[in-house]
């Protein structure tokens, strides 16, 4: 792999900045100062130091994105911008996919990875990975409706939702919902089944992963080693 590509995919800098940083002596490979951006290296074997820090290479890419409104959680779309379009060019996208779906107008935590085995496990219905959403609704939700929501509702297509959790705040038209499943437009349809309407929806947790409050809408970062370890060891969630 080219050295500038390696620095780009490991998040050290953009591929275009890599050239300049390498030229100024900021990168060494196996103890020798690197001279050119197109130098060939083996990420599994070579030790790269970038501005004094050893670069950790991971076989898989794990990204947390704060999804903005109007972007679709797909790998490609003929009409709308996708969550992958928000990532910079130097990140190779061929194998990346959004782990789970958020509606076009839902905001917040989106995990993007190329680890198909992990993604499959986290999304499998039997894994019951819990997800937390901050919401606002058009009308206040009564305690009685919240109880119905928590026990499980029948959606318009006859689907019976699994027990969920709803914590009401303020005057009852906002709060936090926790689900252990992810049917199409689930929260929107659950509120509709109560004669109500979602006016704002933001995912704030996916399994053990919390939305990083330092990320502005549309911003992303690589997961930390601790976050990756938490995801890898994550079993079924509790509500
Ligand atoms: N429920 C919804 O209705 N939309 C989402 O994006 C996620 C959960």
Would you kindly provide a brief summary of this structure?
The chain is of the alpha+beta class and 239 residues long. 21% of the residues lie in helices and 24% in strands.
What can you see in these coordinates?
The strands form 2 sheets. Strands 5, 6, 7, 8, 9, 10, 11, 12 and 13 form a 9-stranded mixed sheet that branches. This protein has 239 residues and is of the alpha+beta class. A hairpin with a 2-residue loop joins β11 (198-206) and β12 (209-210). The longest helix is centred in the first third of the chain and has 9 residues, at 15-23. It has helices at 3-9, 15-23, 116-123, 143-151, 186-193, 225-232; strands spanning 27-29, 32-33, 48-50, 53-54, 62-67, 97-98, 107-113, 131-137, 165-169, 174-179, 198-206, 209-210, 220-222. It folds into 3 domains: 3-54, Roll (Structural Genomics Hypothetical 15.5 Kd Protein In mrcA-pckA Intergenic Region, Chain A), CATH 3.10.290; 62-125 and 208-237, Pseudouridine synthase I, catalytic domain, N-terminal subdomain (Alpha-Beta Plaits); 130-206, Alpha-Beta Plaits (2-Layer Sandwich), CATH 3.30.70.1560. The protein is built from 6 helices and 13 strands. Helices cover 21% and strands 24% of the residues. The mean pLDDT is 94. Bound molecules: uracil. The site of uracil has 8 residues, from α5.
What is the string of helix and strand elements? HHEEEEEEEHEHEEHEEEH
Structural class computed from helices and strand pairing = alpha+beta
User: Structurally, how many domains make up the residues?
Assistant: 3
Distance between the first and last residues' Cα: 44 Å
Helix content: 10-25%
Number of helices: 6
Oligomer: single chain
What is the typical, i.e. mean, pLDDT?
94
Strand residue content = 15-25%
CATH architecture of the largest domain: 2-Layer Sandwich
* CATH 4th-level superfamily of the largest domain: Pseudouridine synthase I, catalytic domain, N-terminal subdomain
């Amino acid at each position: 792999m080219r050295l500038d590509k390696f620095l780009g995919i490991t998040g050290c800098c953009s591929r275009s900045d890599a050239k300049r940083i390498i030229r100024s002596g900021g990168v060494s490979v196996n103890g020798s100062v690197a001279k050119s951006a197109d130098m060939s290296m083996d990420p599994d074997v070579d030790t790269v130091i970038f501005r004094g820090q050893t670069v950790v290479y991971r076989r898989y890419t794990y990204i947390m994105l704060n999804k903005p409104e109007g972007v679709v959680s797909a790998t490609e779309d003929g009409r709308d911008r996708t969550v992958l379009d928000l990532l910079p060019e130097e990140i190779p996208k061929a194998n990346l996919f959004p782990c789970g779906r958020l509606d076009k107008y839902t905001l917040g935590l989106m995990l993007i990875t190329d680890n198909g085995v992990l993604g499959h496990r986290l999304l499998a219905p039997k894994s019951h990975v819990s997800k937390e959403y901050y919401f606002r609704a058009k009308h206040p939700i009564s305690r009685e409706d919240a109880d119905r929501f928590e026990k499980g509702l029948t959606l318009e297509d006859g689907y019976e939702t699994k027990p969920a959790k709803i914590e009401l705040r303020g005057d009852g038209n906002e709060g936090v919902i926790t689900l252990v499943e992810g049917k199409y437009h689930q929260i929107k349809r659950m509120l509709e089944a109560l004669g109500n309407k979602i006016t704002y929806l933001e995912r704030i947790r996916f399994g053990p992963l919390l939305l990083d409050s330092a990320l502005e809408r549309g911003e992303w970062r690589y997961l930390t080693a601790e976050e990756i370890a938490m995801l890898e060891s994550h079993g079924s969630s509790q509500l």
